[in-house]
Amino acid sequence: MGEDESVVLVVDDDAGQRRLIGDFVRSRGLRVEEAASAEEMLDMIRRALPDMILLDVRLPGMSGIDALPRIREIADRVPVLLITAHADLRQAVAAVKGGADDYLAKPIDLDELAVAITDAIGTAGKSSAAGRLGLPPLPGDFVCESTAMRRLVDAVAVVAPSEAPVLILGPSGSGKEVVARLIHQWSTRADKPMVAANCAGLPETLIESELFGHTRGAFTGALAERQGLFRAAHGSTLFLDEIGELPLHLQPKLLRVLESGQVTPIGSDRPVTVDTRLIAATNRDLGEEMRCGRFREDLFYRINVVELVVPPLSEQREAIPRLARLSATEFTGRAVRMSPQAMQCLLAHSWPGNVRELRNAIQRACLLCRGDVILPEHLPPKIAGLQPAAVADDATAGRLSQVEKATILATLEEFQGNRTQAARKLGISRRALIYKLRAIEDGSF
Predict the structure, then answer these.
(1) Is residue 41 a contact partner of residue 8, using CB atoms and an 8 Å limit?
(2) Which of 75, 270, 349, 419 pairs with 313 at a CA distance of 20 to 30 A?
(3) Is residue 103 very low, low, confident or very high in pLDDT (cuts 50, 70, 90)?
(4) How far is CA 128 from CA 155, 157, 380, in A?
(5) What is the per-residue pLDDT for 401?
(6) Burial of 440 (C-beta count, 10 Å sphere; 0-12/13-18/19+)
């Protein structure tokens, strides 16, 4: 068989999982065959040998582990990749010693799967998965300049048309919601708007009502019925950012909704059926949160069917020039360019706040720039390589103070006074924002 005829046999009793893996394998330019049991797989490989077998450990009847010796009797040289749940890892490691080529733990990391396929078959799959799957082009404001982002977009192209829940990981400010919107735009639910909420920005006393809704009179102040986010996203996608901030006592209720497809508003005993796809995101280490008892393991595995990782801006510096230009155009409505010196400052900065920090820096520079060229002095001092005292004279310092004040107040207004969300967009802590607001109120700012 030539490389373009390579066949991967996917063995899993879960039809949804077979489809998800199969779509990804096809996106690499490979042919896919499917089997729902070890017995069916053995019959298939007796008739024709595949180039690779992706084998789930837990199967009805004969398990994947038990099937390995039988595979080796028929197909001694065909690479076998085991797919295992966390609880089966020891078995999988033992199986690798006994004849499997490698294993992947669920939830499957698509980047790792791609590497495993490449290692086994030698198919690099360099062309765009989105193009091969017939998806629309990327939105004009979606920046995909780095290898890491191209891999991420390839994974999104495969995941988007499925109904699988997705967990997006990445540092604060890296653009997790942008990735979630791309998944939605490339999904079969794109005809309806995605509903988005930040768990960290919802008041803890009202978060249950926000998510699941309430009836009129369900509690003090419930003057009217509220449908809640799950019902608002019926037939569409619900994006829950900072899922790691969800209070522990509400996690079982979220799990029930995801498992049953029904939501029960506060004050009602009648469940309402919802058809809502969940995409969640977090910058927390949910593994550590589970170990500390702050996040339920069963909920983690329910939301983490597919895991996507957004790289920090420090790992995709190729994207900085285009991100800066797009942001400047968005904020000014005209063509504003970076001087070579300003661009060098942007490229040299470490960007701990990621894309959010870059956008804030460009917004500030646009406010200070009188012409069409952003210079280093228009950038925040820490990015321009200046100490605050060396910025300029008192008049300039006063102008900077007024710009910062205006930016803070405008951001607060944008988020309707929500200090947590405003601080996040400004790239500062909530405590720092409160300190600055007090200074504004007493006139010392």
Answers:
(1) no
(2) 419
(3) confident
(4) 10, 9, 37
(5) 59
(6) middle
Residue at a domain's end among 122, 152, 167: 122
User: Are residue 104 and residue 151 in the same domain, yes or no?
Assistant: no
Residue 112 and residue 71 share a domain:
yes
- Domain match, 323 and 252 both: no
Task: Please name the helix (run of DSSP H) or strand (run of DSSP E) that holds residue 40, with its range, or none.
Answer: helix 38-47
323-360 pLDDT, tens digit each: 998 899 888 887 788 888 999 899 999 999 999 999 99
- The values of phi and psi at residue 143, to 5°, are -95, 120
End position of a domain, from candidates 267, 282, 311:
311
Q: Which residues pair with 167 in a beta bridge?
A: 280, 307
- Environment class of residue 363 by beta-carbon count within 10 Å: exposed (0-12), middle (13-18) or buried (19+)? buried
Tokens matching residue 189: 């639910």
Question: H helices of 60-146, where?
Answer: 64-74, 89-97, 110-121, 129-132
Q: What CATH number does residue 92 fall under?
A: 3.40.50.2300
CB 253 within 8 A of CB 208: yes
Question: What domain range is 162 assigned to?
Answer: 131-311
Same domain for 215 and 328? no
Q: Is the dihedral of CA 206, 208, 213, 217 positive or negative?
A: negative
User: What are the tokens at 339?
Assistant: 């001087």
- Joined tokens for residue 267: 């004050």
Quote the tokens at residue 80. 């076998």
Q: Is 295 helix (H, G, I), strand (E, B) or coil?
A: coil
Q: Where are the beta strands (DSSP E) in 214-363?
A: 237-241, 262-263, 272-273, 277-282, 306-309, 337-338
